[in-house]
Amino acid sequence: MTEVGETAIRVDDLIQEANEFEKLCNCDLEAASAVIEEGEKLMKDPLSSVDHIESKCEELRRTSSLLIEKIQKRNMLLTKARELMDRIDKANSWCATGVEILAGEGGLLAVDKLLEDARGFGLAAPDRFRDMLLHSATQETRALVTQVCQRVEDVWLMASVKRATLQRAAARPARPVHAVPPQSAAPLDAQVRALHFTAVLHTGLATKHNFRTERLIPTIVL
Question: Are 137 and 145 in contact (CB under 8 A)?
């Protein structure tokens, strides 16, 4: 019973198996305790073989203590493995959220919240997070832990760079907006008057031309 699992689901299954095994062992431990108690009673009888009974009782005590110690170590190991899987799951979820924010148009508040949320699974600094996970890792989970730590460090670095960029952009003074004065209406009025004058002039010339033509036609006919 040395497996600790590489996923949260597997660790949960192992914890359940360990609990069932502990229940079976408790029955044996209770039986051993009853035998030891009976042996201690027999040792009070002067006709009994005290040395033999005492040695057997001592052997049962050592075996019971060793079994209890192994059960406790197993439970502690699985508890740490479950905590490790929780941190890994949270770290993976955090990385996925970070990639979305970095790929999108997340502002300074979104990046700050991303870095703050990292504290929820023990990420105050990438190097400390790596040391913490590797300390809890076993031979089975070391490769997984190394991969997750590298992903976390990459997202943390990109988020920190983007945060610094957004902070510089926010601190940069905005360019003043120059008001454009409205154009004077006088030139437009002058253009309108000029166009009106041209139209009237053409109309007058056309009328005068028609008048001359009407006067010339009778003369030509005669």
Answer: yes
**Residue 62 within a domain:** yes
Kindly state whether residue 49 falls inside one of the protein's structural domains: yes
CATH number for 20: 1.20.58
Domain assignment of residue 82, yes or no: yes
Q: Tell me, what's the pLDDT at 106? A: 72
Burial of 122 (0-12, 13-18, 19+ CB in 10 A): middle
- For the entire predicted model, the pTM comes to 0.63
- Give residue 50's Cα distance to chain centre: 66
Q: Please, what sign has the CA dihedral across residues 9, 80, 6, 65? A: negative
DSSP classification of residue 48: S
**DSSP designation for 119:** G
pLDDT tens, residue by residue, 155-200? 988 988 988 888 888 777 666 655 555 554 445 454 445 444 444 4
